[in-house]
Amino acid sequence: MSESDLLSRIIPMFGVSAFAGQGVVVPPGDDAAVVTARDSVVVTTDSMVRGRDWRDDWSTGHDVGIKVVAQNVSDVAAMGAVPTGLLVSVAADPETSLDWVIDLTRGIAFGAEDARCPVVGGDLSSAPAGVVIVAVTAFGDLEGRSPVLRSGARPGDVVAVAGDLGWSGAGLRLYELGLVDTTPSRPARDHTDREKAVSVLQWYHRSPRPPWESGPVAADGGATSMIDISDGLVRDGGRIATASGVELALDEQALREHFLAGPIELALGAEDGWRQVLAGGEEHSLLATFPEGSVPVDERAPWTVIGRVVEAGPEGPRLTVGGAVPSVTGWDHFAG
Amino acid sequence: MSESDLLSRIIPMFGVSAFAGQGVVVPPGDDAAVVTARDSVVVTTDSMVRGRDWRDDWSTGHDVGIKVVAQNVSDVAAMGAVPTGLLVSVAADPETSLDWVIDLTRGIAFGAEDARCPVVGGDLSSAPAGVVIVAVTAFGDLEGRSPVLRSGARPGDVVAVAGDLGWSGAGLRLYELGLVDTTPSRPARDHTDREKAVSVLQWYHRSPRPPWESGPVAADGGATSMIDISDGLVRDGGRIATASGVELALDEQALREHFLAGPIELALGAEDGWRQVLAGGEEHSLLATFPEGSVPVDERAPWTVIGRVVEAGPEGPRLTVGGAVPSVTGWDHFAG
């Protein structure tokens, strides 16, 4: 059973509709839920499981800490909110090395400080031998903005991305191919361009730094829909298409030019690289739609136009690239 | 290394003081953290790990769902807040039976509805073989009240408890002794009094129903300090004593009369039962201090007086029962 199958069984059981008007501004099913607290607070949670979401021979505790914060903060950003707090819950084999736990904590603290978002609490549990699970909950403040949902894309809108596409997926693919970035941090001057490309992609896979400043900027600019790209462009873009009842018609040339050319093509080649641009998971970039002419121009939080929203045809809501449905799909954390 | 040792290493690393005034009303270290969202929102998280926090031969998924919600809601209540929302994060072996997951979900939904508190989101991850971890985050609204901290107890205050003491610990002890409640739900009419006592204690251990309505009532009544009893009366009362710099002088006779006499003594006898009253974990009752004469009288959310707050003596802040420091301590989830 896939994650979405299971969630579609579970979510209705919580009977959120029974609570409508009792403080739920946005119920389950979007990037984050919004609960009023007089003014609203955005809340979201995401976990990482050792051996599933990271491998100790590739990632340090510091990497894991940065990544689990990034995943959560990008969900807050995808609503148009600014992160305001984090809760951290760790379930770990009591034999887990203290050094590793401290390294994790430092990574979480680093990510939290980068997002200007304090860790305000947490929980620690013992887990069976070998198990380490890190769950983070993030809160965000819309600062008076309306939350940007997945369902607001309208024909005529422009589709744009903040951040990169496929870097995390490409970094993972490079690890799977046996290339391991052994540079101490970022690549040095005397590496070849390809070595630098491998290094930067693997670095981004281990410890992504999503463009969360772009979320509130998009909301201020009038974004009609927005999503955090966690399961790949095709899959997450498809979620906007479905929720909005439209077709996202992406421009193949723009995608190749802006996202394939560069480190990904250099490190993986055009074919494998293109697959990562379309379907690479855990990127945590933001995908949004804007009314024509209102894509924000902001150097700190730039947006790249990659397509248009058009009326859904007889095939129903869908995402197309160069007029065709791409054969790649995305990433299913539960099945994977 | 114990939980408190590890936490005392980790919490300072988050550098919460660096964020003071940036929206943190109550930093880590109390039952729950408070983050402003214009008006404030109370947030807390607590997890349950299969094989550590429950056993499948004793507890159903429904029981686990009720318990994990109860643990979180009681932390919200212990601040004086009303719960407003829950996030649920499940990391599970993909081979976990769907029936079990659905039963868990129903238990969570039951607990949430009982607390009038919607589940507003969550996260699902795959975990190694045999592993199931359920993490819940709860949010609460103080509705204009000041949060009730652990640090406000003052000499002359009265110490009181809402809910029972030792029921969950006694239920666990009875399971450990090999007595397993096989009644379908609550005890029936033709059971002996002891069988009924065993059944009700084991039922409470599996699926506690803490008196969360008493938290806001206590805050409205002027409670000077409050804590959720998750690690036993002695340990959690000791936390109020330490945070407030006082002695909690508990009345042995009042404790025996109100909490030992009844199901616990009937099921476990006086000696073992008394240990549970003092040190039994996972009760999730509320312990609070009130200025003399202001203990709330509220039939739906009653408080039982069990002692007084006195000046700390030369031994420093501590908890005493009948004038002596009890030899039992409490429950350490990480060491245990």
Task: Characterise the protein shown here.
Two copies of one chain form a homodimer. By secondary structure, chain A is an alpha+beta fold. The first copy, chain A, folds into two domains: 44-141, PurM-like, N-terminal domain (60s Ribosomal Protein L30, Chain: A, 2-Layer Sandwich); 158-321, PurM-like C-terminal domain (Phosphoribosyl-aminoimidazole Synthetase, Chain A, domain 2, Alpha-Beta Complex), CATH 3.90.650. Chain A has helices spanning 3-10, 61-77, 98-114, 167-176, 193-206, 214-220, 233-244, 252-260, 263-268, 270-279; strands at 24-26, 33-37, 39-49, 82-92, 119-126, 132-141, 158-162, 225-229, 246-250, 285-290, 304-311, 318-321. In chain A, strands 1-2-3-6-4-5 form a six-stranded mixed β-sheet, with helices on one face. In chain A, strands 8-10-7-11-9-12 form a six-stranded mixed β-sheet, sandwiched between helices. The longest helix of chain A is centred in the first third of the chain and has 17 residues, at 61-77. Chain A is globular. Residues 13-34 and 332-336 of chain A have low confidence and may be disordered. Chains A and B meet through helix 1, strand 2, strand 3, strand 4 and helix 3 of A and helix 1, strand 2, strand 3, strand 4 and helix 3 of B.
